Amino acid sequence: MSTIRDQAVPTNSVVVSGVTKLYGATKALAGVDVAFRRGVVTAVVGANGSGKTTLLRVVSGLLDPSSGRVEGPTGRPVRGLTSAQDAGIVLVPQEPTLAGHLTVWQNVSLGRSEAARGPFLRDRAARSLAARHLEGLLPAAVLDRVTSTLNKSSRQLVQLAAAMARRPVVLMLDEPTAVLDEDGVQALHALIRRFVAEGGTVVIVSHRLRDVLELADDVVVLRNGLVSHTGPVTPQTEHQVVRLLSAEEREDRPVHRPDRGHVVLEASGLRGWRGLHVEHLRVHAGEIVGIAGQSGSGRSRLASVLAGAHPAEGEVRVEGTSFRLGSIRSAQAAGVAYIPEDRQVTAILGNQSVAANLLVGREDATVRRGPFRRRAAERRESADLIDRFEVRPRDPERHAALLSGGNQQKLVVGRALSRKAKVIVADEPTQGVDASARGAIHAALAAAAAEGSAVVAVCSEFEELFDLCDRVVVVRDGSVVLDRPIAQVSQDEVLASSLGSDLPDPNHAPNPTEEIR
Ligand SMILES: Nc1ncnc2c1ncn2[C@@H]1O[C@H](COP(=O)(O)OP(=O)(O)OP(=O)(O)O)[C@@H](O)[C@H]1O
What we know:
Elements: E1 12-23, E2 26-37, E3 41-45, H1 52-59, E4 67-71, H2 81-86, E5 89-92, H3 104-109, E6 116-117, E7 120-121, H4 123-134, H5 152-165, E8 170-174, H6 182-197, E9 201-205, H7 209-215, E10 218-223, E11 226-232, H8 235-245, E12 263-272, E13 276-284, E14 288-292, H9 299-306, E15 313-318, E16 321-322, H10 328-334, E17 336-339, H11 343-346, H12 354-359, E18 368-369, E19 372-373, H13 375-388, H14 405-417, E20 423-427, H15 435-450, E21 454-458, H16 462-468, E22 471-476, E23 479-485, H17 491-499
Parallel strand pairs: 3-9, 3-10, 5-8, 8-9, 14-21, 14-22, 17-20, 20-21
Antiparallel strand pairs: 1-2, 1-4, 6-7, 10-11, 12-13, 12-15, 15-16, 18-19, 22-23
Helix pairs in contact: 4-5, 14-15
The protein binds adenosine-5'-triphosphate.
């Protein structure tokens, strides 16, 4: 395959003409005309379900369009995986597709001819190839780790390294920052800048304003499978994008919650895997506590123990009654609802309907009378949740696996928040959802707190932490290193304590030596 510099020089690297994609009656793409320029970053933005992932899949040859045409950097048509690969178009998908049982170095160098002899990897060559591509993204110590033992953020960076090992000409990134922490975002942004400076083409789908403002030269706005705007990012378009990607203040969001009430959730003496060590944590009724920390700090580990999803030593009590650690059932029975980080693996029942996903496990009087299911009430309840959490399309019978990523996230959140739980543990509750739904999810969490729930939310984004939470708990090396009301702490202080530095360092660079969870 040719390298970026070998390519001829037309400005447009990829040209998409009249592309439609139909799934039965659903028109995911309804006639898209767009061009991605060489040497620039194009951000593709739009609401959940507007067709962004479908467009990336068509351009990268994973999906055939129903009609229309894609031309790659050499001017040749792209249709199917082989022609996309030949054109140097590489996709980093929304959900990592790595082989979990293989090591990181095996995953990065898999399929690279320079690291193989016939079908077999040449271990030393493969390891050094992987090390080269991981540099600046993750510490070298992860090379030999079994990939499934890494957290989602680290797996995303491994996926990126694997994409770079394929020497792309066009790099297509589907929401790469949705699960990355600050270091990961900075490392990714640096990599993208280097890549386009060398003439590469980057297309990035994102719901994060920061990705567009800090990275993109061009922006494409998709709406219902059509391009509603395309062009360079100018002060005027920037204004539109800010409106599109910022959650507006919502009328349904309770602004003032009552003073915090009694202690609802109390954890003590927690000792868990990979050094989790939390002596004491209390969350009160009406409180939203944000857990912050670097990737690998233990923030998600702590959340999963509090939700009963992982065993640990110690005790977690809900209104004075302890539940069995490591038993989600026992935690649920005690009144805990959990929104896990990894919706694909642990939360979505892909081959069941949207309604079934929303109502699974519900036994309360809204949907049951004694041993009987109240079918009409179930229908009403699922329709209400679909509206409240803006699940699209509004079809309770659709298979959950067929929803876009952001809409699947809304299902998981809607399910957890419909349970009137005493405690809500939410790990990155708004990952991958659009601005409007982000506002709806924040409003629903605030409403639950206002009604007396204790809420714990893992937030890797500062914007979410400071928008949503009343108190911040920073975790580092498995322990709580800062616990303070949000009104009494600055972003710099949170960053400094998560990094373990005394003073905030304004020039903080990604630190690839940190331990990965
Ligand atoms: N395999 C499929 N079968 C049926 N419908 C599908 C399938 N994949 C996607 N769709 C539908 O196509 C539309 C576009 O989905 P797509 O995943 O491209 O949206 P998106 O803009 O990437 O959303 P998100 O921001 O949530 O990731 C949605 O209505 C979705 O439900």
